[in-house]
Design a protein that fits this description.
Low-confidence stretches: none
Helix content: 40-55%
Strand content: 5-15%
Region (Disordered): 386-409
CATH architecture of the largest domain: Up-down Bundle
Number of strands: 8
Domain Acyl-CoA oxidase/dehydrogenase middle: 136-229
Radius of gyration: 22 Å
Family: Belongs to the acyl-CoA dehydrogenase family.
Order of helices and strands: HHHHHHEEEEEEEEHHHHHHH
Pfam family, one: Acyl-CoA_dh_1
Number of domains: 3
Mean pLDDT: 88
Distance between the termini: 45 Å
Keywords: FAD, Flavoprotein, Oxidoreductase
Length: 409
């Protein structure tokens, strides 16, 4: 990639800076409230976080800065990946974010644009982009995480509705979502990848129970979701019956590259600031570790730009870099948050009583979710080996068996 702005891109960057300087405040420290309060157990904190996210996204939408790479017919500006990257670079300097809404736009938007019916696109894309409606992803199950196609949630056609029963888990922000994208099994008599169908779910429907999962940090970002005779109109089918895996792959291709863009709150500057406050910057061993944090951050930034460009331009041969990016991100995150905790010495064993209300302790616990979300490291290594390097596929005795004849946990 060429990291130098062309004259056109430099002009666009000035436009972005003018908009942001007029509508947001520069970041003054870490963004601990943005990174923590969205899943806070305190209802007032969580509600304030969501209110700010919705307000910022509405401002972007009303001002023409939302959906920069979305086609104009779907409410976007039809710009290129370079403009999106420039906007992200400049936004990172400001204390403003769309937070949990961003993930839905990155996952649901491309999926509906590629596979949704014209009626679905007209109904859902604009409220998604404006932040008026929020979404969640109903994919993983207790027995189907890395092997997602083994899922057991079933949907049976009954007249003009599909009746759904089953359970999903590790669903981010389900307790606040208006809609969800669901993949369910509609044909158990064919191999597991072939009998799946993709749906839009109104999360306010009867037959849905959402149970927040309290994590080690005391927050509830993830949820269990139970379906008991949930009725989904046939008009909410996305793509064709039995074609759900194809539709889901569009969603999954965006997920790993999206996850790897997280972690603004734990960047090099934040680690360095902690080291300076504790008077540790003269330690030569620590300086070497800080240099590693800085180097990883630069490499991660460049990898992220390349992967975002590949995904936005449909270059599937480069989109596999999302697997490289995701794995490198999780390792880099673990290194920098663990280093920040170690810097604190015995105080690092505290939590909310530690410096900064336990900010680094929170991030240290939170790193484990990033290793699993969007696919484990082992899954991404397999993707790279099989699809990028042409290595033999992992042995699987159930690949060609009907789902109802395969062994499941």
């Amino acid at each position: 990639m060429d990291f130098q702005d062309s004259p056109e891109l430099a002009s666009f960057r000035e436009e972005v800076r003018a908009f942001l300087s007029a509508n947001a405040e520069l970041r003054s420290g870490d963004d601990r409230d943005w990174s923590r309060n969205g899943a806070a157990s305190d209802p007032a904190l969580a509600e304030d976080y969501r209110r700010r996210c919705h307000a910022w996204q509405k401002l972007l939408f009303d001002s023409g800065w939302a959906g920069l790479t979305w086609p104009t017919q779907f409410g976007g500006r039809g710009l290129g990946a370079a403009q999106q990257i420039v906007f992200g670079q400049e936004l990172a300097k400001y204390d403003a974010t769309s937070g949990f809404l961003t993930a839905a736009q990155a996952l649901v938007g491309p999926t509906l644009m590629q596979h949704g019916s014209p009626e679905q696109q007209q109904r859902y894309l604009a409220p998604l982009l404006s932040g008026e409606e929020s979404w969640c992803q109903l994919f993983s199950e207790p027995g189907a995480g890395s092997d997602l196609a083994a899922l057991a949630t079933k949907a049976v056609l009954d007249g003009d509705h599909w009746v759904v029963n089953g359970q999903k888990v590790w669903t981010s922000s389900a307790q606040h979502a208006d809609f969800g994208i669901l993949i369910a099994r509609t044909d158990p008599d064919v191999p597991k990848h072939e009998g799946l169908t993709f749906f839009i779910v109104d999360m306010r429907s009867a037959g849905i129970e959402v149970r927040p999962l309290i994590q080690a940090q005391g927050v509830a970002h993830f949820n269990e979701v139970f379906f008991s005779d949930l009725h989904i109109p046939v008009t909410n089918l996305v793509g064709e019956v039995g074609d759900g895996w194809k539709v889901a792959r569009t969603t999954l291709r965006s997920e790993s590259s999206m996850i790897s863009g997280a972690g603004q709150a734990t960047n090099y500057a934040a680690v360095l600031s902690t080291a300076r406050r504790l008077g540790r910057t003269d330690d030569p061993v620590l300086r070497q570790e800080l240099a590693k944090v800085w180097t990883n951050e630069q490499v991660l930034k460049w990898m992220s730009w390349r992967t975002q460009t590949a995904v936005m331009t449909g270059r599937r041969e480069l989109a596999l870099h999302g697997s490289l990016l995701k794995n490198f991100f999780t390792r880099s995150l673990a290194h920098r948050v663990n280093l920040a905790v170690e810097l604190q010495g015995p105080e690092g064993m505290l939590f909310q009583d530690a410096e900064g209300e336990g900010f680094w302790q929170y991030q240290c616990l939170n790193q484990f979710a990033s290793r699993i979300g969007g696919g484990t490291e082992e899954v991404h290594r397999n993707n790279l080996g099989e699809q990028a390097l042409g290595l033999p596929r992992e042995p699987a005795v159930d690949r060609d068996l009907p789902w109802n004849q395969s062994k499941r946990s």
